[in-house]
Design brief:
Helices cover 35% and strands 10% of the residues.
Length: 81
């Protein structure tokens, strides 16, 4: 029984060592894919070139979702239209 456990642990170690040696070669052979490439583009095309986070594509330009405003110009109890 002890011999089976020893062989199992040695086999597990060999598999782990094999993975450590093989994975860098596989990673070098496969293309690098990233979903965040070209995200700082100021021009966009719907379905092809996305805008950065916080922007949306409108007429082939990236437009902010929430426009900037000056908080100092906001007055309390004023009517908002």
């Amino acid at each position: 029984m002890a011999r089976q456990v020893a062989y199992s642990l040695v086999g597990l170690f060999v598999v782990f060592l094999g993975l450590l040696l093989v994975l860098p070669y596989l990673q070098a052979m496969l293309p690098q894919v990233s979903g965040f490439n070209d995200m700082m583009a100021t021009s966009c095309e719907e379905g092809r070139t996305p805008c950065a986070e916080g922007y949306f594509c409108e007429q082939k330009t990236c437009v902010p979702i929430l426009p900037r405003y000056n908080i100092e110009s906001v007055q309390p109890n004023s009517e908002i239209y």
